Amino acid sequence: MTPLWVIALFLSLTETVVGVGVIQTRGNIQLILTIFVVAFPALVALVFFAIIWRKPYHLYAPTDFGSMDFAAYIEAMRGSHLGRDTLFQEISNAVAASLRSDQTVTEVMASLGKEARPEVKIGLEAALGRTANRTVERVRSVGFLAIDTRPLLGVAGNVRYFPYSAEEEVSSLLDAIWLGLGEKADVPAFSYGSEWILRDSVSGRRFQDIGRRWARRTRGEAYDKRPLREVGIEPGMTLEAVPAVHGSRGSGAA
Description:
It contains 9 helices and 5 strands, in the order H-H-H-H-H-H-E-H-E-H-E-E-H-E. With 254 residues, it is an alpha+beta fold. The chain folds into 3 domains: 58 residues; 54 residues, no CATH class; 100 residues, Roll (Ubiquitin-like (UB roll)). It has a 5-stranded mixed sheet. Helix 1 packs antiparallel against helix 2 and helix 4 runs antiparallel to helix 6.
């Protein structure tokens, strides 16, 4: 039993009961029930199409996703996309905590012997801090993509880091980015290319020829199955989510 069946059964039962009421009544009550019988399906249809346009994944049960793992389905519905966009922050915190810890400083100072002066400790702490920053930046440049949604969402946007895999499919990355936008962003599902696109923050290149719309138009396929490297998306890039048409969204709009 999926949400679609629930909606259909609810609508059918309501129309049947109220239809009987129309036949059994007279006068103003009959007029009101008749108006309801006509208007109610139209209202349900409007809400239904709004859900299809904005939040289509709410209309499907886990079994409708084929071989997808049920846990993955639940996580996707929560918009976390398996927590992949928090991995970089966790790595950064671990590197900083390890290199800048008191234990590390103490061990290095001990290796220098009793001759080490207090000012050496200050310089050592600064050097370890710089090393931690370089290490984190190196990790980002070889294994992550930065996705900046502020150009699209304004103050509601942020920068998130997604693990990079050269063989990941384009549609998979776009789905993860869209899920990360959040429900308050008011960006329709399957709207890449019409509502928003990605732009390389360094070169300014706009990735227009990717995504589901491109795949349907040029290949007759439902998904863009090309690997990221094939379309020019490389590790270390900062990709900005921007309106598909310049000026189509107001500054700061969510």
